[in-house]
Amino acid sequence: MLLVLFSDPMNATSALNLATANSIVNRQGISLQWLHKAHLPEVIAIEQMVSPSPWGKLQFVDSTESTLLLIENHRVIGFAVVQLVADQAELHNIAIHPDRQGQGIGSLFLNALIKAMPTVIKMFYLEVRVTNYRAIRLYHQLGFAQIAERKDYYRSGLGREDALVMAKVIAQLE
Hints:
Blueprint: E1 4-5, E2 15-16, H1 18-25, E3 31-34, H2 40-50, H3 57-62, E4 67-72, E5 75-85, E6 88-96, H4 105-115, E7 123-129, H5 133-141, E8 145-156, E9 159-169
Parallel strand pairs: 6-7
Antiparallel strand pairs: 1-2, 3-4, 4-5, 5-6, 7-9, 8-9
């Protein structure tokens, strides 16, 4: 079994089971792997295409150890930046190439990430733009619930935009 670490390589509780995640996505001819510098241009291109206020190269470089890629035919078709801290996971960024959106790839990717979480993870958090209706619908379908709202969280073409804070119970809280 292959274990991939998000932070401290000596701490097994911070491991994401990449073999489990790949067993889910491989059925679709897709594989997961960690971000490498060679993939940065593809990741940044996807981010530029899908985000109203895209991350820059430095943000991805700083997030290399917590960024997973969806690879199909040696091409990056999506990515997720997930940080594991103590008993919580937080999705900082996720995107699917526009050519592959609406095909269930985002749902497949998130399900794989959730199933690959170490057992120590109890909650999975994320923020989403209040106007990102497709993502909000997907998150609800996957069992996320809105727990808060952050005013003026995101930049937008018209100023600022609120974010919904959503959470999903991954394991029963003790």
